[in-house]
Amino acid sequence: MDSSTLLRIAGQRIPRLGRTLLASTKGATNRGFLAVGATATSQLQGEWWSRSIVRNTLKFRAARQPNFLRQPDFLSVQQHYSHTLPRHQMAAPAGQDAVQWKLMNEDECILVNESDEVLGHDSKLNCHLWEKIQTGKVLHRAFSVFLFNTKNELLLQQRSATKVTFPLVWTNTCCSHPLFRESELVEADNLGVRNAAQRKLKDEVGIEAGDAPVDGFTVLGRILYKAPSNDQWGEHEVDYVLFAKRDVKVEPNPEEVAAVQYVTQDQLRELVAKADSKEGGIVLSPWFRLIVDKFLYKWWDLLEADKLSEAIDLQTIHKLS
Fold first, then answer.
1. In whole angstroms, what is the distance from residue 88 CA to residue 80 CA?
2. Is 175 a catalytic residue?
3. What is the pLDDT of residues 113-148, one digit of tens each?
4. CB–CB of 28/250 below 8 Å?
5. Which end of the chain, N or C, is more open, meaning fewer C-beta atoms within 10 Å of its C-beta?
6. CB 149 within 8 A of CB 264
7. 3-state class of 87 per DSSP?
8. Which domains are assigned to the chain?
């Protein structure tokens, strides 16, 4: 076994593919499954193992469950966020996480028309209420980051259970919105979107700015889509698709992310098949699925061939459904 996949605890070398992460625990740069919470799983020599932290004692037990089928436990972490345009803070309704509800009220999304021209701004909450989406007046700018390691494996995340929209769905590395602030409104070279992508990679999966420089993102194009999360919430976005390739240290924020997983193209196809057959409760985010079905594999091939520039189309906004 390669030494990079091992971890020392109490002087013993143990498998590092699976990893437990508490709020104070550091992340890992490995290609195995990393669950955020009390337990995680990994595969070693044909067996699936689970590790838990109980009174600071690491215990291992066999848990023959594949990565995508095991449901992690969750921790609620209160974290400070600062924003340029604070709003009146409403108390979180029953069943909603306080931190996520705070972000829904305070974050100001960038409203655009179908040509991606800026019209103004509105709260993240208003932009995701399905009744407002149906009026056609809260179309807003978004981005989706696809981060690959130097083995050309794609980092996926499972959104946390506390997310207001699309909780526990599997999606690309990072999905969010540029905010209505000066640094994220810069149109030249899509710098505003790239600044936002750098910010949210830190917020969601703990990737430091130095490991995700803005000039390391390649903006491939834009899609326009609309999709409900449930009867109350949904998305209506002009979504910028960004690719980046580098090895990074991942430290997921449990308020945002339930789990992460590096996948090959074949492993992603397997995951998509599980989602289609509803195996193990696997669900993919609608924007991710649209990008997978329309573009991802051919863009991935170009990335592997060092020809990613051939995929760039900054003129077209692809309307997908």
1. 17
2. yes
3. 999 999 999 999 999 999 999 999 999 999 999 999
4. yes
5. C
6. no
7. coil
8. 3-69 (no CATH), 100-319 (3.90.79.10)
